[in-house]
Amino acid sequence: MTPVTSPPRGRAAGADGPPDGSGPGLEAEDVQAAFDAAVAADERIEPRDWMPDTYRSTLVRQIAQHAHSEIIGMQPEANWITRAPSLRRKAILMAKVQDEAGHGLYLYGAAETLGTSRDELLDKLHAGRQKYSSIFNYPTLTWADVGAIGWLVDGAAITNQVPLCRCSYGPYARAMVRICKEESFHQRQGYELLLALTRGTEAQRAMAQDAVDRWWWPSLMMFGPPDDESSHSAQSMAWKIKRHSNDELRQRFVDICVPQAEALGVTLPDPELRWNEERGHWDFGAIDWQEFREVLKGNGPCNEQRLHRRRTAHENGAWVREAAAAHAAKHTATHATGHTADHAADRTAADRDDRVEPAAAGPAQPNTAPDTAPDTAPDGAGAPSASRSTRSRA
Ligand code: BYC
Question: Which parts of this chain are annotated as the region Disordered (predicted)?
Fold first, then answer.
């Protein structure tokens, strides 16, 4: 029987080829074919696998935009931390905003596995050379906006991001698993906040409705331009970076929101919303794509403010980065010196034992010091994936 072997992935399993994937004996067509086969078989592409340059740059573009959205997205909600109406609401909101910072870190980490540094990406964001989600260029005018962001913006984010957990690029997919778990909590807190308002006074109900009226259409724009204007979708779907088109996900989101709006007791600001029996979906009105394009060009209500705050926060944080780098350098130096001293001490003791009473040394004890632990790079940066281990064994 012919043994079943896994296809080469552009580098020898035993790492006897250079990490750029040009392993010995593998021609350009071989690595491309191996990559295509892995994508077709729904296997994960890992950082050290060969990948087409355009696959890499597409991922960097999308992951960078995503990471930037997470950290810029902290601003509109952080605006309400000091004015949260109770200690409970304040604690929840602070936790949520901190989660967004964490999401940014996971994503910048995933981008780093593709060979781009966080500094480089932040520089591009600050220079206006990379995008972040259009949604964060709208203002948070009332407390109810915090609820509407949770319900609609995080709801749209989950709809878009759950399929990204199956993205063909391993580190991005794994980051998305964690992010989606937290986004679910964010969505629930927004829904619960709005529910408290719609069950409150007349003024609170009006405030909730006003927030939903303002956030509904921008939330639909989060999914990106319509499919026939989406320049990247076809290729990204062929590579299984994206699993669904922008319009498919937008429709899914509308279908989820309509019954939720009813349960909340708010109306969605679209007179054309109608159940379409034939399609089995809700029909909805035309999106103002001109507004979307303007926001992307930098002309949204808060573009300037968001970028200005981000740049200022980055500049003001310079001393933190310097202090952290100095601390890390000091720690490394101390650790290295301590490490050398420890080993010297061990050697001296061993020598002494050998000299004095070799037979009494006893069985060797496993060294459990943390510095002997195997390299565990974050999120697949260096760690072999399960699929790769399987291939190596095959
Ligand atoms: N805003 O060919 P297309 C969060 C750009 S954070 C701005 O369809 P693609 C949260 C697009 O980049 C949520 N730009 O692109 C955080 C492209 O421009 P370039 C963020 C947009 O990539 C804190 C051009 O339009 N989520 O939830 O195939 C607090 C053509 O578009 C937008 C993600 O980033 C937009 N809305 O599809 C609370 C998800 N839409 O690059 C919540 C990951 C499109 O050629 N990203 N553009 O200059 C994706 O899934 C995809 O990138 C998109 C766009 C669906 C967004």
Answer: 1-28, 324-394
Counting ligand 1 atoms within 8 A of each CB, the residue from 296, 303, 307 with the most, and so the one to mutate, is 296
Residue 124 identity: K
Nearest-angstrom CA–CA distance, 39 and 46: 11
**Which of the listed residues 98, 105, 137, 232 should we mutate to test ligand 1's pocket, taking the one with most ligand atoms within 8 A of CB?**
232
Residues 157 and 225 in one domain: yes
pLDDT of residue 25: 55
C-alpha distances out from residue 150 to 35, 182, 268, Å: 38, 11, 16
* Residue 140 belongs to a domain: yes
| One-letter identity of residue 206 | A
Q: How far apart are CA 231 and CA 234, in angstroms?
A: 8
- Those residues with Cβ within 8 angstroms of residue 80's Cβ, 6 or more apart along the chain or in another chain: 93, 140, 143, 145, 146
Cβ of 153 closer than 6 Å to ligand 1, yes or no, is yes
Q: What is the pLDDT of residue 378?
A: 29
Whether residues 189 and 315 fall in one domain: no
| CB of 282 shorter than 6 A to ligand 1 | no
69 CA to middle of ligand 1, Å? 9
Q: Evaluate whether 44 touches 387 at the Cβ level (below 8 Å).
A: yes
| Contact 243 CB / ligand 1 (< 6 Å) | no
The residues, ordered by sequence, that sit 6+ positions from 225 with a Cβ below 8 Å of its Cβ are 246, 289, 292
Task: State whether 117 and 174 are in the same domain.
Answer: yes
Side chain identity at residue 341, one-letter code:
A
Distance 153 CA to ligand 1 centre (A): 13
pTM: 0.83
Q: Domain containing 320: what range?
A: 301-343
User: Is pLDDT of 316 > 50?
Assistant: yes
Q: pLDDT value at position 338? A: 63
- Residue 220 β-bridge partners: none
Rounded to an integer, the average pLDDT of 270-277 is: 98
Q: How far apart are CA 255 and CA 280, in angstroms?
A: 9
In a domain, 394, yes or no: no
